[in-house]
Amino acid sequence: MRFWTAIGLILVLSATGLTYEIAAGRVLAPFFGTSLLTWTAVIAIVLAGFSLGNALGGLIAERERGQALRTVRAALIATAVLAALSPTILGLVYALGARGTGGMLLAVFLAFFPASVLVSAPSPLLATLAVEARPGREASSLGLVLAAGSLGAILGAVLAGFVALPLIGSAATFAGCAVLALLCVPFLRSGDKGGPGHREATRTFVSALLPLGLILAATSIIGPVCRFESGLSCIDVARRGGEVSLYSDGIRQAAERVGPDGAPDDGSERLVLPYTDWIWDRMVMDLGPAPSVLFIGGGGYSLPTQLLSSRPEAAAIAVEIDPLITDVVRQNMPWAGDMIERVGYDASSEAPQPGQLGIVHADGRVYLNETGHRFDAAVMDAFSSASVPAHLVTLETFEQVRRVVHGPVYVNLIDAPDGPLARGTHAILSRLYPHVVTVRGPLSSRGTGNVVMAASSRPLEALPTLPEEYERARITPGRAFTDDRGWVGYR
């Protein structure tokens, strides 16, 4: 094998491995969410697979050369099959009852560990071939082997995060990894072109095309994990009865009432999710007739739409990190979509405008750090899967909120009634504001539910009623999250 052929194969397989690893973290989100724990599990298990694959690959490289090449070709074919099937395996393990941290670890191991082992198995043999191809230049050859592996990892990370996942989605990204692995097979041959080794490699490649094609066709029939997918979100929209709901990573984020024709319901009670009812009732009681409100987390844009529908002179700016969510809302959520079409504008560099819905596609923390605008109130309702992003629930974040907001702050969480996220967030608000009230909603089968807080420098008058099944909550004093020691996600 020529030196640069070996180097090229090392680069391609390294890129394939890193693309596969990042896609694994993305496709895991609809089933187990996105958190420090899920990404830790993916990185640790996939790297363990790479390590074992390299160790086994070293043993393979010591075999007779023809046998080693045949084994490596088989490993790449198996890599292609398993990479294509990874999302299906993950969904199957989840359907069979994998839940919680233990279930998540099991699902990651079964879905992603085998392919991680196999994709790295050819590397020792390729390194050996590269070094042997330049006698007397072993040191520089080894350096280029290591550089190719690192460069491939960089290319794989960039390809996954900036190109593949945002543009074609996770299922197609896994299929692409399968194709790349298979395309390496014909190059793993011994002897001259046209010789027995070359013909054997070609036959192996061609014989693998049909079964892999059938697998890819079957996975395409099953359909993608997400109806709409970006590099940040796996989004679905579902209509049941008189409601249309927006889901992100399998979590219901917003809902609207609609009529039989799919148009917005003309009834006065347009807010569907009870936590939005409570926040809106608080806003009615706490704010004046034309407030300027900052919404961190656009989601379904229900509360900004309610604000501008009820108080036309109010101003709203919604900071939503994922432009795809805004597009999906515009096309599928008739009430909020109509509001965005009529009064929405790009507020990236604009001040709040009365009667207008400013939209900023940016990270909420970045916006808070950089904005020079001031607001009468803020709603913190940003989610990544089922949890608040850790960097948006720290003392430093809410110090920035207090800098730009001179009125009350409303915070929506999902946690156990007195869970660690609720305790840490309550500790932050209690440190910064003298008046904090908390309510909680009904619990899911997992023992979690909405925990909603309001914090203000002025006394907060009690609401006369609460949403159905909601009650006031007492939160045990806890440690305030900081940028240094923050929320790590559900265990």
Main attributes of the structure:
9-stranded mixed sheet; 4-stranded antiparallel sheet; Growth Hormone, Chain: A; single chain; 491 residues; 14 helices; alpha/beta; Rossmann fold
Give a short account of the largest sheet.
9 strands, mixed
Residues in helices, as a percent range: 40-55%
Q: Quick one: CATH superfamily of the largest domain?
A: Vaccinia Virus protein VP39
How many distinct beta strands? 13
* Backbone structural class: alpha/beta
Q: Order of SSEs, N→C?
A: HHHHHHHEEEEHEHEHHEEHEHEHEEE
Separation of termini? 49 Å
Write up what this structure looks like.
The protein has 491 residues and is α/β, with parallel strands linked by helices. The chain is elongated and about 80 Å long. Strand 5 (292-296), helix 9 and strand 6 form a beta-alpha-beta unit. Helix content is 54%, strand content 13%. It contains 14 helices and 13 strands. The strands form two sheets. It has a nine-stranded mixed beta sheet, sandwiched between helices. Strands 1-2-3-4 form a four-stranded antiparallel beta sheet, with helices on both faces. The chain has two domains: 3-225, Up-down Bundle (Growth Hormone, Chain: A), CATH 1.20.1250; 247-472, Rossmann fold (3-Layer(aba) Sandwich). It has helices spanning 3-32, 36-61, 65-95, 100-120, 123-132, 138-183, 196-222, 274-286, 302-310, 323-332, 334-343, 364-370, 395-404, 420-432; strands at 228-229, 234-240, 243-248, 251-257, 292-296, 315-319, 344-346, 357-360, 377-380, 409-415, 435-440, 449-456, 471-472. One of its GO terms (biological process) is polyamine biosynthetic process. Keywords: Membrane, Polyamine biosynthesis, Transmembrane, Transmembrane helix. The chain crosses the membrane at residues 27-53, 74-97, 103-130, 142-165, 171-189, 201-223. InterPro entries: MFS_dom, MFS_trans_sf, SAM-dependent_MTases_sf.
